[in-house]
Amino acid sequence: MKLNTWQISVLLAIFAAIVCIAAQGISPLLAGQPILLFPTDLYNQIEFVGFVSGVVGVYLMVKESAWNYPVGLIWAIAYGIYFFSVAKHFGEASLMLINAIYLIDGWIKWARRSEQPQLPITRLSLKNWGVIIGTMIVFIPVLIALLYSVRGNFVYFDATTTSLALAAQYLTNRKIFESWYFWIAANVVIIPVFIYREYYPTAILYTVFTVMAVFGIKEWRQSMEMQQKMADPF
Question: Sign of the CA dihedral 69, 74, 77, 80?
Fold first, then answer.
């Protein structure tokens, strides 16, 4: 029996919950403490919610479902609180706040009325590549200075991944294929920092995001090919 998108989403949520609880138990286990069946610390609970909603949200994005946006909004709020209060990654925390706005904007763009065609996947033009890269060259140093002024942690990594992720979300909202490459780049930059700081669940989550982005590239490429065949059947 072939499972539909929502059935797979439920299974992914259960799997993500188990993985998150196991990952949250790494540090206590190393300290000789037992792994809890469910996190009792408030910030661990917030991380748990962000972990599960993040995995499900990215899967729905891979499947081109507009529901990735409300689910992603839960992820952005949860991790915004986590990054600000626990990790002191103020760039990432600010990113989550901006992402929340972007997610609402993307939800509007993707959730077309039934009589309208689905938002098509498009490619990033050479001109837009130049605009995005130029903007990042200017934005990253400014963000580094701001993060230093508020005494953020790992400001160079934080500024770089924040810039890459903002570009990725901007492109995702417009359903541009290359958004996946920006997501992968942002994750690769920040994952080592999470591992170094022993934020194991978040490091695992962003690793999962990276793997899912690879599948997203494959799925969206196939979708684009289908679009082209429908537009030009001969």
Answer: negative
